[in-house]
Amino acid sequence: GIYPKPNINYYVNPELEGKNSLEVFDIVVQICKEVGLKIMLDIHSIKTDAMGHIYPVWYGLDKFTPEDFYKACEWITNRYKNDDTIIAFDLKNEPHGKPWQDTTFAKWDNSTDINNWKYAAETCAKRILNINPNLLIVIEGIEAYPKDDVTWTSKSYSDYYSTWWGGNLRGVKKYPINLGKYQNKVVYSPHDYGPSVYQQPWFYPGFTKESLLQDCWRPNWAYIMEENIAPLLIGEWGGYLDGADNEKWMRYLRDYIIENHIHHTFWCFNANSGDTGGMVGYDFTTWDEKKYSFLKPALWQDSQGRFVGLDHKRPLGTNGKNINITIYYNNNEPAPVPAAK
């Protein structure tokens, strides 16, 4: 195949000189295996393009078709099907689009239309699971969903519930993902951000955790947890600790995650994510201790404060201070499941 040239600092990583992108990824997988880290694959773009995630759907760029998308997912699934370092597949990053103005947008209903993300996700998931039935299938939402008695043909902004790209899972209530015999592999995954990314209408003066829950979280995704429809993973959340509204939103969401034992992945590690910042500085070595201290209470730890890895044999990390999931449950620690309602 044709592999894009990786963007690597060879002064820091001389061992990667001459490696193509797939070879570099194989090295990353091996390192993760050695330290007890698990990997969730994610398709940010259907073509190699650092800005490809701006395109709203999983087909169309450079004439890529839905079938190309499915086959690509099958290919990488087959390549790593015997390596349990990879445990999940987030099918597509942030399907989105505004039906009232965009020609191309992602929707969610019971049709087989080319832009129906639900149909594409079900089709892709089944083809992946036919190859590796052990993978978790992580399914994000869309951007906009029509209000009651409104069809997708409406060109009126006021006819839709709109939220973050990938964060709108309202359609699950009426049209849940159906994977048949693989249903227990479904994980719904919204993305949620604060006003440093965009000043959404629910960030009005005096917003609270309860107002965020009522205005955004519950109608878009929290009901999935509350009604025990399926597992929930907040696939992206994070931002700057600005001492103002963005930090206020981060604190509310962090506390909501802790209180309800919600699974999550924080955005992001690297510093060069312009509207959120990272967990490390631009040297990729120095930790942002303030942000880490803020996030740490929401990370999975046992009653002794040891971090828990998902590998059944290897403890997490190399410092000998953490454990794995087997040790955790052998010590009769509680399962990290959502709080009962």
Structural shape? globular
CATH homologous superfamily of the largest domain? Answer: Glycosidases
Helix content: 25-40%
Record the strand order, biggest sheet: 1-2-3-6
Detail the poorly predicted runs.
none
Describe the largest sheet. 4 strands, parallel
Strand content: 5-15%
At the fold tier of CATH, the topology name of the largest domain is TIM Barrel
Mean pLDDT: 96
- Structural domains: how many: 2
Order of helices and strands: HEHEHEEEEHEHEHEEH
Computed over alpha carbons, the radius of gyration is 20 Å
Distance between the termini: 51 Å
CATH architecture of the largest domain: Alpha-Beta Barrel
Please give the CATH class of the largest domain.
Alpha Beta
**How many helices?**
7
**Count of individual beta strands:** 10
Family: Belongs to the glycosyl hydrolase 5 (cellulase A) family.
GO molecular function: cellulase activity
Protein name: cellulase
EC number: 3.2.1.4
